[in-house]
Design goal:
The complex is a heterotrimer of chains A (102), B (494) and C (118). By secondary structure, chain A is mainly alpha-helical. Chain A has 3 helices and no strands. Chain A is elongated and about 50 Å long. In chain B, helix 5 runs antiparallel to helix 6 and helix 14 runs antiparallel to helix 19. Chain B is globular and about 70 Å long. The two termini of chain B are 23 Å apart. Chain C is an all-alpha fold. Chain C has a single domain, classed as NADH:ubiquinone/plastoquinone oxidoreductase, chain 3 (Methane Monooxygenase Hydroxylase, Chain G, domain 1, Up-down Bundle). Classes of the chains: A mainly alpha (102), B mainly alpha (494), C mainly alpha (118). Chains A and B meet through helix 1, helix 2 and helix 3 of A and helix 6, helix 7 and helix 10 of B.
Amino acid sequence: MIPLSWYLVVAAALFSIGVYGVLTRRNAVGVLMGVELMLNAVNLNLVAFWRYVTPTKMTGQVFAIIVITVAAAEAAVGLALVIAAYRTRRTVNVEELDTLKG
Amino acid sequence: MTTAETFLYLSPELTLLLVAALVFVLDLVWRRDPDRAHRWLPWVAMGGLAVALIITVALMARNPSAHIATMMVIDPMSLFFVAIAIVGAMLVILSALDYIPARTPYVSEFYALVVVAVLAIAIIVSANDLILIYLGMEFLSITSYILVGFLKRNRGSVEGALKYFLYGAAASAVMLYGMSFLYGATGATDLEAIARVFSGGLTGDLALMGFPAIALLMVGFGFKASLVPFHQWAPDAYEGAPTPVTAFLATASKAAGFAIIARVLLVGLPMFQEKEWVPILMGLSILTMTLGNLVAIQQRDMKRLLAYSSIAQAGYILIGLVAIGRDVAFGGLSGLLVYLFAYLFTNIGAFVVVIAVENATGATDLPAYAGLIRRSPLLASMLLLFLLSLAGIPPTGGFLGKFLVFGAAIRAHFLTLAIIAIINSVIAAFYYLNVVRYMFFVQPPDGGRKAIAVTPAIRVALWVCAAMTLLIGVCAQPFVTWAAHSASLLAAVW
Amino acid sequence: MLHSYAFIAIFAIIAFGFAVAGPAFAWLVRPKKPNAIKNDTYECGIKTFGETWVQFKAQYYLFALIFVVFDVEAAFLFPWAVAYGQLGLYALIEAALFILILVGGLLYAWLKGALEWQ
């Protein structure tokens, strides 16, 4: 059987790619995609831990499903905000959203 | 626990849920008659919140320590925070009565969303399981994103909401990563089971889990409580958001962040106190108050100034948690509760003045406050009181909070921390008094002839905030007793 | 154990090689006589104009947002359906309540006019 650590390494890599995306992307939707990668890394972790640590209790699976759902709700609100921002500003580039500063 | 008891203990949450649903439904029913909806729905929301508050206080009297499955714990501490959130929301709705309808055609949703946000806070502060903690935090976050971006035609509002959202989504993902490791290390998600596994001895992998898990969790919690370095969203979201929403974010939502930090660390991870979380919290606290104050000095916009001031205040509040450390009497935690309670009225009061000035002049920058004493003696004297309380000058509630929290730090032998906090308070007094200088000594551009009208609702909100700010300062004993009692059951678990 | 994975590896290599081999062979033997018309994006039909990054009407996204709710609903209903035999009436009512809440949300959006095509 594939050892647990392999899954954790893949998840860590995925998480790092997500963080990289969040930190470097200028487009709000791109940042959101980075966040989704991070969340998927978490899901991978949760399901792997479920399989190896507590295969008889469904906690990890339930947690993963809830993360998926909440991520969808979050993305829906986020995209709505992106649309609202685009309507008022004609841009979704985070660097150009600079009315508020100081 | 029987089903009836479960419903009894969940009744504040159920009431809030029903009220929010009622406001949404009535808004639909009256959609052809928006005037009627705008007139009545705020009072439906207020009435519902009042009922929820009464139920919460009644439950407090029962002094419960009730587990609902392993998911929630209803104890005096959680009820304390529910009460804070409800009172905060009521003041926010009062202050928004003129503000929101003047700026957007979507009014009823605002009141419903504020009630929903209170429900989210009620879930967070009693959550006892990582899954429910995550769910509650996201619930509050998503509601807050919408509230911040509520004026969807306003550039600042939408921009603030988008920034809040991007930071919030990333922070919650990092927090979840920490939760997944906590789950992996212990095989459990409810805090008490996690504590049991850890108390079996920190060997091998388990010992290694502590620091990274706490650090990752603190990203998400620190984001809610707007601790440096997870605060970058706060100034923009606070400035862009409709001012009543800013008041809510700076008080009730921040209090929820502290409630969850306290519960997770004290109930779930007590064995990591000495080596892991006390140093982390201490570092965060020093960073937060110092940076918040230093940046606040340079601010020329009142909302932004209060945003940085509220970041700095979060640093002081955090001292309460650090100082739990070696103090058995729990001075730190009850100090934190008193601080948050006084801070609720003080800060909302300050924002209500900002709202009143903004309603009259449309401006939030400091020059708009020039000569306020002549244009509206009421607003000026109220703001003076709130600023004195924020600066921690007696006989106000802010002083009592600072006194208890700093005192707990000294008693727990965190002398350096206490000294840094006191130096910071002095720096903070400087920019608070700068606002006072504007109000009293700077000549207004129009010579101060144009008086600022204050509506009855705002007047009521102001008087409540002012009365409570003074009452907590002058007649401290009952509040301290109440806070100590609220903290005590958590202490027993710990 | 590893042995059985080797089959998958060999299979993957063959499948990949098969896909690459065809075009590669064609590229090797085909005559190369480029001219302006041949190098056009389309040899026949209407030439494209404007940029590829055209803007879609925001309305599509708003519908997609509402769709997402029901999309994710499946994530909860699927495990419930799989374990339906063991769960019984209680879970059936729970699932029905869950769907009803979502339908309530849809009704709200509908009555608020979010489904009108503007």
